[in-house]
Amino acid sequence: MGTHSMKFFKTTILALSIIGLAACSSTGDEEAMASSAATNSSADTSAAQRAEAERLAREREAQARMEAAALATTVFYFDFDVSEFMASDRDVLAIHGRNLAANSSRRIRLEGHADERGTREYNLALGERRANSIRDYLVVNGASLSQIETVSYGEERPADTGQTEASYRLNRRVEIK
Questions:
Q1: Are 106 and 156 in a shared domain?
Q2: Which of 20, 26, 82, 118 could form a disulfide with 122 if both were Cys (CB 3.0 to 4.6 A apart)?
Q3: What is the rounded distance in angstroms from the CA atom of residue 63 to the CA atom of residue 5?
Q4: Taking the model in full, what pTM does it have?
Q5: Range of the domain at 154
Q6: Is residue 16 domain-resident?
């Protein structure tokens, strides 16, 4: 090989080496960028998963608070001469039914009451119909009949002894004991 050929050969080898190094270094940059993007994507996914877990935890806490408040509600009021409970009580009573279903050893007593208007016998029967309407709804929502006792006190155990409509309203009730 001549000097000129040798220089050309060395220059070509040198140029190819530089191109190779440049190619390797840019591939390294791309790999680093891809790795960084994967890390960022993983961090984004992890943050999204944490946010979702926190949201679900808040929802469970809110649900638990709502159920605790519903279970703390143990008196249900009725309109005059009516044995069907109020539609606004359905959700609370459904929670009571599901709670009984989840706790099969738990027992309750439903005490039916009426205001003093009407005969003693009529008010005893009305208190019983009221207690039974709640009992039936609890059973539809999972409770067992064997968990529920019903009793009627009619007008015998007033919550308020007054003779006003407000007093009568307080006496038309079923209490969960």
A1: yes
A2: 118
A3: 85
A4: 0.71
A5: 74-176
A6: no
